[in-house]
Amino acid sequence: MTGPALRHLESHHAIHEYARQEAEAMTALLERAVERQETGLAVQIAYVLIEHWETRTLCHAASEEQGLYPEIVRLEPDKESVVHTLTRDHELMRMAVEEIKELLHNDEPIVEAVRRFHLLLWVENMHSRDEERRLIATLNKRPETAS
Questions:
Q1: What pLDDT score was predicted for residue 7?
Q2: What is the torsion angle, in degrees rounded to the nearest 10, for the CA atoms of residue 35, residue 114, residue 126 and residue 101?
Q3: Which of 15, 41, 49, 99 could form a disulfide with 33 if both were Cys (CB 3.0 to 4.6 A apart)?
Q4: Considering all CA atoms of the chain, what is the largest pairwise distance in Å, rounded to the nearest integer?
């Protein structure tokens, strides 16, 4: 059974919103370091930002895939295609993080990593809106899960 924070729209939204705001703030710091041509600092910020995506958003995604999504499909089998799409979003985010690591490891221009971080923010924003609208809101309407 999934914990209550994942099943309730307001708390689920707060989890997404807080992680997104942190990622946006760190991405802005990264951009400022790049603009000032402080490459060493920019690379350090990029690694902190990678850790943020892995420990916040991607850990949250894993808990959804392991608990929330199977629970929703069990309760509402017609949501299986939505769950599949949302799981693919998670995979795209994981792939982008791995690509950023490779870019940094291979000493590619830091602006390429910045572009990927913006891509992550966009995918996560679209994913969260879709997930909240198509899964969590409908789950909250079910009498046995609304408490």
A1: 64
A2: -160
A3: 41
A4: 55
Percent helix, strand, coil in the chain, to 5, is: 85, 0, 15
Neighbour tally for 93: CB within 10 Å: 20
Chain centroid to Cα 135, Å, comes to 16
**Token couple for 141:** 């309407």
| pLDDT tens digits, 5-51 | 566 678 888 888 999 999 999 999 999 999 999 999 999 999 999 99
pLDDT of residue 47: 98
> How high is the mean pLDDT of the chain?
90
Q: Residue 8 region, left (φ>0) first, then alpha (ψ -120 to 50), else beta?
A: beta
DSSP string, 18-29: HHHHHHHHHHHH
H or E element at residue 82 = helix 80-105
Tokens of 131: 């997930």
- The structure tokens listed for 36 are 């000032």
